[in-house]
Amino acid sequence: MPRPSTFSIVARDPERNAVGIAVQSKFVGVGAVVPFASADAGAIATQSYANVAYGPDGLDLLRAGKTADEVVKELTGADPEFESRQVGVVGLDGSVAAFTGSECFDHASDVQGDHYTVQGNILENRETIEAMAETFEETAGGLPERLIAALHTGNDAGGDKRGEQSAALYVVKPEGGYDGRNDRWVDVRVDDHEAPIDELERVFKIYDVTLLERAEPDETRELSGATAEAVAGTLADLGFFKGTPPEEFGGDERDALEDFRGMNNFENHSLPVLEDALSRGWDDAEGDGEDRMIDAIWHGLARLERK
Known about the structure:
Elements lengths: L5 E8 L4 E8 L9 E4 L3 E6 L6 H10 L4 H10 L8 E6 L4 E5 L8 E5 L2 E5 L6 H12 L4 H15 L8 E7 L11 E7 L5 H16 L13 H13 L13 H13 L7 H11 L7 H13 L6
Antiparallel strand pairs: 1-2, 1-8, 2-9, 3-4, 4-5, 5-6, 7-8, 9-10
């Protein structure tokens, strides 16, 4: 069997009552194998000849009131091949535990901190794990951003000895899913890509702007000057606006932005909020065309608290 040898982080945000996993591997579709999470239990990463039964079985044990350490002991204790497994568990009660079997390929290890555990195998070095833990602790922002930042740092510090292929981000919280009908707050996967963590972050930003809600700003800015001209020019290049890009953002330009909003399913944010986000985020954004627009909106919304 192929081995989903990888590095992952399982973590909890007690303030948002959210818990989730970020993972990268030289293994296709790692998001289909490693991460398991439920808003009424916790989160689990199972890897290295992954026993995928650890996911649902472990979540059931967490729901039954077991601590993360008790869950790890019960899962591995019932598995005759436990020495080839690696697993990380974070419970809603704040408990954290991991296990790295003696038959996992080097380098393999794990490390725990407040509300998180990091684990990996077939790694270049121990520094991969340590860098991920340090970055998670020191990074500001929401749980998704902190998890992605940990992946980036782990990869830069050494990462998977075999290279990169797929990555996933899965975060749950009560009523966090589409229209509040489930707990799947963030569920983004990159199944096969030469730079999966970069691609995961790019897709997450689109997901964030499209599906996640933010608190309304106390005030909004209008586009003006060079930024207004640049945004109007980009809308024109994308076919939403005709004419010479102006330095003042008026009715025609806002109609074009409204069409852009509708085309991209950004209805979670009003037109004034999108204009404000573009005004604040344009200079920090990367890329061209639609990529620049979306990245600017994401940066401009970043100051607003997620609901």
